[in-house]
Design brief:
Structural class: alpha/beta
Shape: globular
Largest sheet: 8 strands, mixed
CATH class of the largest domain: Alpha Beta
Bound molecules: pyridoxal-5'-phosphate
CATH topology of the largest domain: Aspartate Aminotransferase, domain 2
Number of domains: 2
Helix content: 40-55%
Strand order of the largest sheet: 2-9-8-7-6-3-4-5
Radius of gyration: 20 Å
CATH architecture of the largest domain: 3-Layer(aba) Sandwich
CATH superfamily of the largest domain: Type I PLP-dependent aspartate aminotransferase-like (Major domain)
Distance between the termini: 45 Å
Strand content: 15-25%
Number of helices: 14
Order of helices and strands: HEHHHEHEHEEHEHEHEEHHHEEHEEEH
């Protein structure tokens, strides 16, 4: 298997730790290990007493229980496989499930590793199920799905809440997609790493709760703001597929880091509070963003989001969005993510709302617009 460079991660590799004004990130505000330990009495001692040997490949049993508790009655601890971040899950699933001759449908845009890894598996073909620019927000043509299905289609990959558009399937839409998959015997990969960040007051169901051949991908990185733990998971009713992924995990990471598993358990015991904290930061930043975009209607078409910490806005200036983003980071140190890293030439860029520093970083973007005469 030969993988091409991961453009999105290469872009962040260049700027994430050098650009001072980060307006592109998809994870929510993080915290120190001390902040997390302070949530629970006695946990600091527990952390120091943590045994640093190997852990179980399936994941810490108690952690798997906590994860299973996020789901409905069909998901028990034995239906959960922990992962080294969500990224490992994408790699394991596609490599486990797909063989030469298989066809995959991928909601697009999407976190690019899905398409890249699928395309790198010899003999696998991929079709895009494209989200539509509907003016003030992004939308999805559900009828278009059936037309993309072929006899050799094996897997449908959806990402909801979506990276980068913030588009989020309703439960009714998810059920409709599950019905199509059921009728054709397709697996459904639901990348749900931004779940818990619903902003419209309607919490969504996990894919694994709605469809027997769905795989729900979750992670501590995004909604919980704990990307440095590198703990993710798959939940599925299909134990046999999870078991096949475990046998591949023996070749990737073997097991997760014991300190990370310990800290993840604390975070999940305080799941509601941590998710509410992230949603509150996003909501406040969205109000600031609304005022900013109202002042710059000649430069941007603002896109509303249903859930998650990111939006995919449209640039109205007569220049490629990539050139605009390059100029913003080089002249002013303001980091926006150009749509080109998603493989699109369109006039779009990603903005992230999950950080407390958003208002001051947005003010720098505004200074940049003034200085450039945009
Ligand atoms: C939709 C989606 N899936 C998976 C990942 C990978 O997450 P992690 O960094 O936790 O491995 C990301 C990261 O940006 C993402 O946006």
């Amino acid at each position: 298997m030969k993988l091409r460079d991961f453009e999105l991660e290469c872009f962040f590799g260049k700027y994430e730790f050098t650009a001072p004004y980060l307006l592109a990130l998809s994870d929510c505000e993080s915290m120190t290990a001390g902040d997390l330990l302070a949530l629970e009495e006695g946990s600091e001692k527990g952390y120091l007493d943590q045994w640093l040997g190997y852990t179980e490949t399936w994941g810490d049993p108690e952690l798997r229980e906590h994860i299973a508790a996020l789901y409905g009655p069909d998901i028990a601890a034995e239906n959960v496989l922990t992962l080294h971040g969500a990224q490992e899950g994408i790699f394991l699933l596609l490599n486990t499930l797909l063989d030469a001759g298989d066809h995959v449908i991928v909601m697009y845009p999407n976190y690019p590793s899905v398409e890249e890894i699928a395309a790198a598996i010899p003999g696998v073909s991929c079709s895009r199920w494209e989200l539509q620019d509907c003016g003030e927000r992004w939308g999805l043509d559900l009828d278009a799905l059936e037309e993309l299905i072929r006899p050799e289609t094996r897997l449908l990959c959806v990402n909801s809440p979506n990276n980068p558009t913030g588009f989020t399937l309703t439960d009714a839409e998810l059920d409709r997609i599950a019905a199509v998959c059921r009728a054709r015997g397709l697996y459904l990969f639901c990348d749900e790493v931004y779940k818990g960040l619903e902003l419209d007051g309607h919490p969504r169901s996990w894919g694994a709760d709605r469809y027997e051949k769905a795989l729900s991908l979750g992670v501590m990185s995004k909604a919980y703001g704990l990307a440095g733990l590198r703990v993710g998971w798959f939940a599925s009713r299909d134990r046999e597929l999870l078991d096949r992924m475990v046998r591949m995990k023996h070749y990737t990471t073997i097991c997760d880091a014991a300190p990370s598993e310990y800290l993840s358990k604390i975070a999940l015991r305080h799941s509601d509070a941590l998710l509410a904290r992230s949603r509150e930061i996003i909501r406040r930043n969205l109000l600031t963003a609304d005022k900013f975009f109202a002042r710059h209607r000649n430069v941007f078409e603002q896109k509303a989001i249903d859930a998650g910490p990111i939006a995919f806005h449209k640039l109205l200036l007569p220049m490629p969005a990539g050139e605009f983003c390059d100029l913003a980071v080089e002249k002013k140190g303001v980091l926006l993510l150009p749509g080109r890293v998603y493989g699109t030439d369109g006039p779009y860029f990603r903005m992230g709302y999950g950080r407390r520093s958003f208002p001051e970083n947005l003010a720098k973007l505004e200074e940049f617009l003034e200085e450039q005469g945009f």
